[in-house]
Specification:
six-stranded antiparallel β-sheet; 8 helices; alpha+beta
Length: about 400
C-alpha cells in the first residue's frame, strides 16, 4: 500500500501535497520517523451492498465439480518487473498429502497473498492483503501485519473442521490470531478474502481498497468497489499500540480501527472458464477493470482458452490442460493462472512508472485536488492472485 496512506484520524481529514509524479499525505499527528529500513517481504474491498454471510460448504469429494486453479505474481515497489521466481501456482486437486501451501514472505513489499485448501474438503481459500504504509511513521513495519494475517489465514483454513466456513469468519479467526501474536506489536492492513466450493459458490469478504473482478467470456461479470473513510484512507484492520492511543488522547481524535465485521460480504456463482482476479491497490490504482480484462482476454485468446467465433465467445477445450501444462516460451510460465497473474502485474508495474499515463488513482486526485495537477501512475507494491475456474462436464455451464 502506498506509504502516504496515513494512520487516519477521523476528526480531521489528511492533507495532500502533490507534484508531477509524487504525492504524500501530511498526517494530523507527526509521529516518530521509523529508524530502520523496511523489511523485505511479500504475501497478498468493497461491493455496493452488504449481504448476510451464507457460508460455503466443504465437501470431501475432490474429484468432481468446480476447482480453482490459482496463481500469484508480485513485485515490490522499487523492484524490477515480476519474473518467474516472483510467481506461485497452486492446484488444490493436485496437492499431495505432505505438500504445504505457500506461507513464505516473497519480495512484494507490504503486500501479501495466501492460498490454501479448506480443511480436508474440496473448497479453496485465497486472497490478498495490503499493509497500511502510514504505520512506518510510528516505527512499525506494515509488512509484519499483512504477512502475519496471511499466515494465519492459511493456518485457519487448513485447520478448519467445520462443515461450513464463511470468508468473513475466516478473516475474523485470522485477525484474532494476529492480535494475539506478541511478535506483531502494531500495524494495519486491508484484506480481500475468498472461499470457493466445488458447487461453484464463491463468498468474498472485502475490507478496504484491495478488491477483485470476475471475468466471464471476454466480459467483466462483476467488480468490487473500495471501502474508504476518506480519499486514500481505506478501511483497515489494525493493532494500535498503547503509546499511539496515548498520543491520540492528547491531540484528539482516534486512529482508524476497523474489524472483520465491517467487511463487505458478497456471494457469487462461478462457472467453467471464469477468471477471478484479486489484487491490491498497486493494480487497481493503475488499471481499471476494463484494462485488466483486455490483458486477460489477449492472453486467453492467444492460448485459445477463450475462443471467439460467429456464435460469440466460448471456453476452449484445452482450458483445464492449460492450467496444468507449460504455456510460455521455454516453459517460462508453467501454468495459465500464473501467466495471467504475471501479465497483470507487469502491466500494472509499467503503468505505475509512466509519468504521462493517468490511471484511476491520478483521476481521483484530479477530482478531489484539481489544483495539484497530478499526472501519471502511482508507484506501489503490487500483488495479484488469479483463480481460473475449471469444471467437469456436468458443472461447465451451471444454471445461474
Amino acid at each position: 500500500m502506498h506509504p502516504f496512506k496515513p494512520l487516519g484520524l477521523l476528526t480531521l481529514p489528511p492533507l495532500i501535497n502533490c507534484s508531477l509524479n509524487t504525492c504524500k499525505l501530511v498526517p494530523v499527528l507527526q509521529l516518530q520517523q521509523c529508524p530502520t529500513p523496511w523489511v523485505e517481504s511479500r504475501c497478498a474491498g468493497r461491493s455496493q451492498f452488504n449481504t448476510q454471510s451464507s457460508r460455503a460448504s466443504h465437501s470431501s469429494n475432490k474429484s468432481s465439480g468446480i476447482t480453482y486453479k490459482v496463481g500469484a505474481a508480485f513485485s515490490g515497489k522499487g523492484w524490477r518487473l515480476p519474473s518467474k521466481k516472483d510467481t506461485f501456482s497452486f492446484d488444490p486437486g493436485g496437492q499431495v498429502a505432505d505438500q504445504q501451501p505457500f506461507t513464505g514472505r516473497p519480495a512484494s513489499g507490504q503486500d501479501a497473498f495466501f492460498i490454501s485448501n479448506v480443511g480436508n474438503g474440496s473448497s479453496t481459500a485465497f486472497g490478498v492483503t495490503d499493509g497500511v504504509g502510514g504505520w512506518i511513521q510510528s516505527g512499525i513495519d506494515p509488512a509484519d501485519f499483512s504477512h502475519g494475517l496471511c499466515r494465519y489465514l492459511v493456518k485457519n483454513a487448513k485447520d478448519s473442521q467445520d462443515d461450513v466456513l464463511g470468508a468473513q469468519e475466516l478473516l475474523e479467526r485470522a485477525f484474532q490470531d494476529v492480535v494475539s501474536d506478541k511478535k506483531i506489536t502494531g500495524g494495519g492492513s486491508t484484506a480481500c478474502v475468498a472461499i470457493g466450493d466445488s458447487l461453484g459458490y464463491l463468498e468474498v469478504a472485502n475490507l478496504g481498497d484491495s478488491g477483485f473482478v470476475q471475468l466471464r467470456l471476454n466480459a467483466v461479470h462483476y467488480n468490487s468497489n473500495p471501502q474508504t473513510h476518506a480519499f486514500n484512507t481505506p478501511y483497515q484492520l489494525s493493532i494500535i499500540p498503547p503509546r499511539i492511543l496515548a498520543r491520540s488522547r492528547i491531540f484528539g481524535g482516534m486512529p482508524l480501527r476497523d474489524y472483520p465485521r465491517d467487511a463487505s460480504v458478497t456471494s457469487h456463482m462461478v462457472r467453467h472458464g471464469d477468471v477471478l482476479i484479486f489484487a491490491t491497490d498497486g493494480v487497481w490504482d493503475n488499471l481499471s477493470s476494463s484494462q485488466v480484462l483486455k490483458v486477460v482476454s489477449e492472453e486467453m485468446a492467444e492460448l485459445q482458452a477463450w475462443k471467439t467465433g460467429d456464435k460469440g465467445t466460448i471456453v476452449g477445450s484445452r482450458l483445464e490442460d492449460l492450467t496444468r501444462e507449460g504455456t510460455g516460451p521455454q516453459n517460462d510460465d508453467s501454468f495459465l493462472q500464473t501467466r495471467l497473474a504475471k501479465a497483470i502485474a507487469r502491466k500494472a508495474k509499467v503503468v505505475s512508472e509512466d509519468p504521462h499515463r493517468d490511471g484511476p488513482f491520478a483521476k481521483e486526485v484530479q477530482k478531489f485536488y484539481p489544483n495539484e495537477h497530478y499526472h501519471g501512475g502511482k508507484v506501489d507494491d503490487i500483488c495479484v492472485v488469479v483463480a481460473v475456474v475449471v469444471g467437469t462436464d456436468n458443472t461447465a455451464r451451471p444454471k445461474l
